[in-house]
Sequence to fold (310 residues):
Amino acid sequence: MRLEWIEDILAVMETGSLARAADRRLLTQSAFTRRIRMIEDSIGAELFDRSHKPIKVLPAVRALEPDLREAAARLVKLRSGLRDASNTTGSTTVFACQHAITATVSPRIVAALTETPGASVRVRSGNHDECLLMILSGEVDFALMYESHTFPTEIPHAFERVTLDQEWLIPVCTPGLRETAEGPVIPIISYPAEVFLGQFFALNVAPRMPAGVSVISKAETALTLAVYRYALNGTGIAWLPQSLVQAAIRRGDLCRLDDVLPSGEMNLLMLWLSEPRRPHKEKIRQYLLTLLYPRAQTGHMLPLAPPEEA
Fold:
């Protein structure tokens, strides 16, 4: 049983509705509802009575509230103890990335952080909502995420953020498919509507498609690296982060189509919890910003120093 699952269940118990619980957990209601379904599927039992509006916790589950609170407290204490023990034996930085960023940006971050003798890094990967939850639960020190340049993400006050760089989502395909880009129907590899890149495509790319051109989805997946592989296999036209495909473009395996099809600009963000303050972690963030992203602006940073062993 994961700590964040227990905290999700307790949030519904305490607030009395999925909408208010989602607000407390700093998630959209749809994302929180999906998490509740996932928890029930993983446990193999329903926890809520959905015949009522708002839904109610089943009486048998409500009876377990003291046990859930005790388990959550033990897990929080255990996690804190393990992190403290890790910090006394070495300098381990844990950060999360959206899936595409894991393959493109994170290698530079890892290389910079591991220059110091004794330092180590753990990288977690997830979607937009999962990255936020990993910060909230204390599983990671910071997260790297995309946001729409046109429609910036509303980041809750619990987080601090800095824009590191800009990234372009560009259309690409194998050379043999280039002529299909002019339509009238173009085969594409699509993202599900509920994931970030699916929403980004719907808001920033689809409305600017050339007049008279329609799309047909040949394959759909939420995994950006899978979209990349499908594009290399010639499955269809894909919209992918430029940093992910630039090597394939140089090799001639893929060709850019942003001369005939729309692309979209995204921001690359670093996010972390406003509290509690951990001076050592703030030094590490500042070190990364100064070394890799000197144009990034943020506050609450300590004087520059390379990361040291804790």
